[in-house]
Amino acid sequence: MSFDNLDTLYRQVIMDHYKNPKNRGTIDGDALTVDMNNPTCGDRIQLQLQLEDGIVKDARFEGEGCSISLSSASMMTQAIKNKPVKEALAMSEVFSDMMLGKDVNADDFDLGDIQALQGVSNFPARIKCATLAWKAMEKGVHEEE
Fold it and tell me: Does the model's pTM come out above 0.70?
């Protein structure tokens, strides 16, 4: 597949998550809630996590922002659901490395749609958009410890 075709595919995946976000909404009942924003561009997110016995049982988000920010939140909530908290944090580290342009071992985790955000590393001003939901997850999990 040519680079142009791959880039087009990745853009389509990002736009699909933006227009049809997964896990958008709130959790009924007890949930850990984290509010974060990116003051440089105005993105804001409220992430809710339901943690039980070291597992992310549910993850949902509300917010406003650009396609990168909201797509990343959609992808992240989908990826961490029903995963051990330690694995979710490790995925966040791999994602952060990917955003910094580092080589990541895709064999460690099935990144799925998240790989579509890899090109964001070429746009330093957009990295904070892509990592906002992930940083919210990290903050919430660490506050809960």
Answer: yes
